[in-house]
Amino acid sequence: MPLVVLGYLSGSWLGALTVCRLAGVGDPRLAGSFNPGFSNVLRLHGRWLALATLLVDAVKGMPVLVGAILLELPPWAQGVVGLAVLLGHSYPVWHRLRGGKAVASAFGVMLVLTPGVALVCATLWGLLAWRVRTAAVASLASAAAAPLASLWLAPNYVGVVIAFTLLVLGRHILNIQRLGRGDEPPL
Fold first, then answer.
1. What is its EC number (predicted)?
2. The total number of structural domains that make up the chain
C-alpha cells in the first residue's frame, strides 16, 4: 500500500532535528532526555523552538492521512496509514531507529482521523502538564484516555486509537521507570 510507505516516510521527518538545525542550536538527541521531541526541545532550547517542533511533528503526516480519507479507505486502513506515520516518527531508519515518542505525531494523526478525540486528549495533556509539570505524566494520561474518548466520540476508530495508545505507552517505558523512581525531569 503506497500510502503506508508515504506515511512512514512523512513520519520519519523528525521536526526537532530540522527546527534545531535551522535555529543553529544543538541536536536534542545529544542532551537532556536525548529525545527528539517537544518536551526535550522545550527544556533545552525554550518554548518557541518547542512549539515549532510540535507543529512540524503534528502536521507532517496530515497530507497522507487526508489522502486516505479522500480515497475513502475504511477506518482500519486509515489507522494503518496513521500507525505508519507514528512508526516512522518513533523508528526512523535514517536515524538508526532513534526517533521520538510519537505524542505530537499521534495528536496530528488523530486530529485528522478523530478530531474530537484529539482535542479531548490535547486538553487533558495541557491541563496535566500545567498542573503536574511533567510531560510524561501528561502524555501517559492523555494516551490512556484516548480509547475511552474514542468510544464516545469516534466509535469506528476505537481499535485504531488503541493501537496508537499502545505505541505511545510502549515508547514511554523508560519514563514510567523514572516516574517510579521519582527522577523524571520536569517541564
1. 2.3.1.275
2. 1
